[in-house]
Predict the 3D structure of the following.
Amino acid sequence: MDYKEISKAIEDKVAGLFEELRSGISEREDSRAFGAMIEKRITQNWTKICNELGYKSLDIPGRRTIFDFACKVKGQLFGFDVKTKDLDTTSYSDGGVCAVGNLLKYMANDKGIFVIAEFGHNKSGTKNESRDIEYIRIAPFHTLPSNCYRIENLGTGQVRLNYTVNQVWDEIEWERSYPEFFDIFCELTLTHYKRVKADADKRIQSILDFKRNNYEFFKFSR
């Protein structure tokens, strides 16, 4: 299956929904509301987009899923996660994606293709503080370069991206298979869990030492 071709087809259709936002006539929105507006406009037009491409649109999922809209292409499930990137250099973005377990369940159990739909946006510079879309990039998560992925210690592990899709666009490995991705991702995950376990063992020992010393002095072991 040609992931690049499918991503480009969706990207072109989605871009057509936001032509006015590329010409300085955008609605007045703050960064967060702007992102919500993008997602809403896509979901409202999702069935039409899929029909025009010959894809089978699926119902808009609930909040517990890791994607915002989905379709089937020749029987293959594709789930698209909208990511908005405020290009203001003073704004913070942690690159959060989803929990490790939820990602692996979707990709391995549901056999779904997880796709990032990234929108880079910025203030248009007009007095009404409108925002413009600077770029749209759509690519399967498993094709991103290996140095993109990281895991943070939240719950069972939170998957995050070190770089935007736009930053690594020329490094995307469109032909990468799922087994090749899992080779990369599982090693990253194991390293993370081993580090978390070692940290937890040290903290356990710190508490035991605190008890043993009659609660006189406490510090975490390093």
Summary: The longest strand covers residues 76-86. The chain has four helices and eight strands. The radius of gyration is 21 Å.
